[in-house]
Design brief:
9-stranded mixed β-sheet
């Protein structure tokens, strides 16, 4: 028997052959979280923010040592959308997972990587329009994000921080959870970026040490806020500033802009109640006018 034979077991089922099985089960994304992902909204068979998502994927892949061409991932995604269209799927969540592929001794990255691109579709949540119109309630998570500047902003596959925090707000019965870093600064929610309106204007947390720089966050900062002639900046935000805000919303590429109705502390003793602000509604309207799928 060759010493190179690959053996494995999945849920108790023994696997002893097949190059495909070896590649999949030795994938660095599965073993180490060595990869990234993008989550996009498919609306009427179109991906309105496709170019932004793919550009972020390619740019951030290089930070993880994965050389990926824009054309290769675009080809895979377009082929998947064509297949969905043939199946009659017009609206869905499309998740694109990029892994570093198989191989490497331990943590060491192989000299020549063969990345894997995986596309998955799932139904859109039923409550998206309701939340955009009526707002959501947030819980302040006790779990804190570790500061890690080299990985800050990247939507990598290691999401254990968000899993642990999300378990908190789900148990408490809230729509999402606010996350702070270990230095006490506001960062994001478990699945979205956050904007707050203070006495000096709109601000969103700087993501130099932690968090995900979402495609929708970037779109708002670079296009939507300027188009509305509303001042906005990205900087460090303290917990006190959060509790003193008078308007807030969260955002991501699936939800769009969702108003925040209330924020409750991690002890469940203090709640900040907020009205859905005029400027939040204006920003929602502008986003919906410029990009389909966020009504």
């Amino acid at each position: 028997m060759s010493m190179m034979t690959f053996f494995s077991s999945i849920d108790g089922e023994f696997v002893s052959s097949g190059a495909r099985a070896e590649h999949l089960l030795q994938d660095r994304g599965l073993a180490y979280g060595h990869g990234l992902f993008e989550t996009m909204g498919l609306h009427q068979t179109q991906l309105p923010l496709l170019q932004q998502h793919l550009q972020r994927l390619v740019t951030d892949a290089r930070k993880l040592g994965i050389d990926l061409s824009f054309e290769s991932v675009e080809t895979c995604v377009n082929a998947f959308i064509t297949a969905l269209r043939a199946e009659g799927v017009e609206n869905a969540v499309v998740k694109v997972i990029l892994t570093a592929g198989a191989g490497g001794r331990g943590y060491q990255t192989p000299v020549e990587l063969q990345p894997h691109i995986v596309c998955i579709s799932s139904p859109l949540a039923d409550n998206l329009e309701y939340q955009r119109r009526n707002g959501i309630k947030l819980w302040c998570c006790q779990y804190q994000l570790p500061l890690n500047a080299p990985l800050a902003g990247i939507k990598h596959l290691n999401r254990l921080d968000q899993i642990l925090a999300r378990n908190e707000c789900d148990l408490a019965g809230y729509d999402d959870g606010v996350m702070f870093a270990t230095d006490g600064s506001l960062i994001e929610t478990t699945s979205a970026n956050i904007f707050i309106k203070t006495a000096s204007g709109w601000v969103t947390p700087a993501l130099d040490g932690a968090g995900v720089n979402g495609v929708m966050r970037t779109l708002l900062l670079q296009e939507i806020f300027p188009a509305m002639e509303l001042s906005v900046c990205s900087r460090a935000i303290t917990a006190d500033e959060l509790w003193g805000c008078n308007e807030s919303f969260i955002c991501n590429a699936i939800r769009g802009i969702v108003p925040v109705l209330s924020i409750t502390d991690s002890c469940g003793q203090t709640t900040l109640n907020l009205a859905i602000g005029v400027e939040t509604k204006r920003l929602q309207s502008r986003l919906n006018n410029d990009y389909v799928g966020f009504k």
